[in-house]
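Notes from the 1:1 (GR / supervisor)

We went over the backlog. Supervisor wanted to see one worked example end to end before approving the batch request, so GR pasted a single chain during the call. The sequence is below; no edits were made to it. Supervisor asked that the structure be written out right there so they could see what the output format looks like.
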Amino acid sequence: MNRILDHQYMAERLESLKAGIIGGLALGLAFLITSFVNTLVLAKYFPILVSLQRDFNWYWLMSGAIAGFSGLLFGVTYRYIIRTDQNPHLNSGGVLAFGLVRGLTQIEGLNASSTVLPFVVLVGESILWFAMAAIALDIALQRSWVKPFS
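Structure output shown during the call:
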């Protein structure tokens, strides 16, 4: 009996790992896209958002690694959140929870400015990252690349 349970647990862990890898890759890609958009578009045309501009250095690489790791954790958790339910509130709640936590913690590190726009962009960016990861995971679940948690 332990042998059957061990096999089932290992299969579940493997599915969670696959979900985590997909979430991490999707969030890493979202990080790259938004970094380039912030640097090439927003900071150029909206001077108030210059603080969001990211230079390619060790800090940027560390931010990307943290974003990818956050995506891995999100992917594993998202698989358990949605299970086999068809409840859209669970999906959006998971995205908002992760996005708000990441976005609001980024605000902590910024210097207070006279406008709230950079803070709104950071929080919106984080929510967008996790929404993109959720879409990637939903596609993976629909195509049976990852099995939902029952």
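Supervisor's comment: The chain has one domain: 2-142.
Batch request approved.
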